[in-house]
Amino acid sequence: MYSLTMMCLLFKERDLNTTHITREWKELAITLAEQGMSWRKIAKYLEKPKSSVSDALRQHYKGYVKPNRDLVGTYVSTIPSEVLEAEPSKEFQEKLLALETMKLDEVPVFNKNGVDMTRIQQGSDKIKKMVKMHKYNTLKGAIGKRLLFICDTQVKPEIKRDYLSWIGELIADKQPDIIVHAGDHYDFPSLSSYDKGKASAEGKRVKADIDAGNEGMKVLLTPMWDLQKQQIANNEEVYSPRMVFTVGNHENRADRFAEDNPEMQGLVGVDALNLEQFGWEVAPFLTPVEIEGVFFAHYFANPMTGKPYGGSALSMLKTIGRSFAMGHRQVLDIAIRPTIDGKQQIGLIAGAAYTHQEGYKGVAGNNHFRGVVMFNNLKDGYANLCPINMEYLELRYGTT
Ligand SMILES: [Fe+2]
Question: What are the pLDDT digits (tens) for 196-215?
Fold first, then answer.
């Protein structure tokens, strides 16, 4: 049998289409599984579909075998450096955390599996840092929530939807406590008042728009659903985030159409989309939802005039007076301001989580931030905001 390093080299250098390689990646998968790496992580490392890795390992083990967490020491000491460069799996981080709480004299030199535990105890700076970050990011309640903010996915019939799967993979990977989709997922070009009576409106159909939005929603949520199925099969705790959808002006087109055509009520409208079927709590158009002291809505409007607030995130923050996050405008604008009570407020505008070009915007108009924003340590109206652009998501989660 090849050494792990040798197999890594063989795997990288040979033609991927040869049968030798087919055998070798399976051998490497088995080696990594025997070192306690989760099957999901193995698939990611080998850049193979999860189903292929799962099939190969099930065939080898004659069924599913839980990763042996006692072998984490071997994992630490022999795992290829590029895997350590990547973010470690949750179970790996948990094991490291457990090890960190042990006192030096409690740690045996070798554990029952013959693993040299002193290597872990000495610990590289990288591992110590990972443990620290793990505590900082995941300790429930002690620090704050992790929330993924998505807005304006703008799904319509003719576009490619792979950007939705990248966001979905991010969800399954980072497992935020809360997901907020702030609306404009269903683009509804068929109901656009701007296009009405123009050549650009020809061939547009309401049903096609709804089908496209529903399909897009499935693409977005499938990685999470796959993860949940795997967790259920493995008898593990199932990831189930709170999911909040605030209706955008594009979905609201359907309600306006139903108001203008009362005979269509029940067939067309936000309620008819049945977003709840996907697990979303749905907030009506322009109704802010407060989560951990931050107000979320598609956009914010002056309560006296009903007109949207304009200006920068900072000027809006001063006007609204509370931490807020919205989409609708295709910019990335983040503001932070201290208040007299010693706290800090945040304002976020991030309204473009799609990759396609909008014809009406022209070349220069399409050149704007596209992506999502992770709220880390969300608590008491403040969070560390981390914008994640589409280019990064494609590199990390794209298949081509
Ligand atoms: Fe909008």
Answer: 666 666 667 888 999 999 99
Instruction: Calculate how far, in angstroms, residue 230's C-alpha sits from the geometric centre of ligand 1.
Output: 35
How far apart are alpha carbons 301 and 124 in whole angstroms? 52
- Give buried/exposed letters for 290-311 (b at 16+ CB in 10 A, else e): ebbbbbbbbbbeeeeeeebeee
Q: How many CB atoms lie within 10 A of CB 110?
A: 11
Tell me the pTM.
0.66
Q: Measured in angstroms, how far is the CA atom of residue 152 from the centroid of ligand 1?
A: 7
Going from the Cα of 41 to the center of ligand 1, the distance in angstroms, rounded, reads: 37
Could you tell me the distance, in angstroms and rounded to a whole number, from the CA of residue 259 to the centre of ligand 1?
19
Q: Which is more confident, 93 or 37?
A: 37
Give the Å distance between the CA of 330 and the centre of ligand 1.
Answer: 9
Using the mean position of ligand 1's atoms as its centre, give its distance from the Cα of residue 229 in Å: 34
> Integer distance in angstroms from the first to the last C-alpha of the chain?
31
CA of 183 to the centre of ligand 1 (A): 7
Collapsing DSSP to helix, strand or coil, 4 comes out as helix
* Cα 359 from chain centroid (whole Å): 28
Write the CATH number of the domain with boundaries 143-397. Answer: 3.60.21
Domain with CATH 3.60.21 in the chain: 143-397
pLDDT tens digits, one per residue of 253-305? 998 888 888 888 778 889 889 999 999 999 999 999 999 999 999 999 998 98
Reduce the DSSP state of residue 77 to 3 states and report it. helix
Cα(179) to centroid of ligand 1, in Å?
Answer: 18
Average pLDDT over residues 125-136: 57
In the predicted structure, residue 369 carries a pLDDT above the cut 70: yes
| Tokens 């936000």, located at residue | 270
Q: Please give the pLDDT value at position 125.
A: 58
